Amino acid sequence: MPIDGRDSGSMVIGWLVKLAAVLTIVGILGFDGISLAVTHLNSQDDANSAATAAAEAWQQNHNASAALQAAIDAAGSADTVLPKTFTIDADGTVHLSLQRKATTVLMYRLGPLKKYATVTASGEAPPPTS
After folding, report:
1. Is it the case that residue 75 has pLDDT exceeding 70?
2. d(Cα 75, Cα 18) in Å, to the nearest integer?
3. What are the respective helix, strand and coil percentages of the chain, to the nearest 5?
4. Residue 47: domain span
5. Is 99 contained in some domain?
6. Does residue 94 lie in a domain region?
7. Is 1 inside a domain boundary?
8. H and E: helices and strands count for the chain
9. What phi and psi, each to the nearest 5 degrees, are found at residue 125?
10. What is the pLDDT of residues 43-60, one digit of tens each?
């Protein structure tokens, strides 16, 4: 039995719809995964920069509050320095952790996945050498 043009057209449309749906899902998952990876890497760098700023402030005035404020200022508005993790060793080495929310399409909207959209990074910096 010969196939007329109408039947083959609906077959192609159905195949294209399925392909578009799969590509959309893969694209969203890929974007979220890359976003999490980039956020993790950037947060690690920002945590180390904030720790360096705090170590410099600590060396200048030996004031823990001023050092914590220097870390908060260096971290910027996208990051939250966790004050309970902020410590200064006897030699002036600063340890801290900060949190940042990843920009995702899907993860932050789904209840069970929300916690994975928040990245925590630890930073450490020795006292600056003069």
Report:
1. yes
2. 44
3. 65, 15, 20
4. 7-125
5. yes
6. yes
7. no
8. 2, 4
9. -150, 130
10. 999 999 999 999 999 999
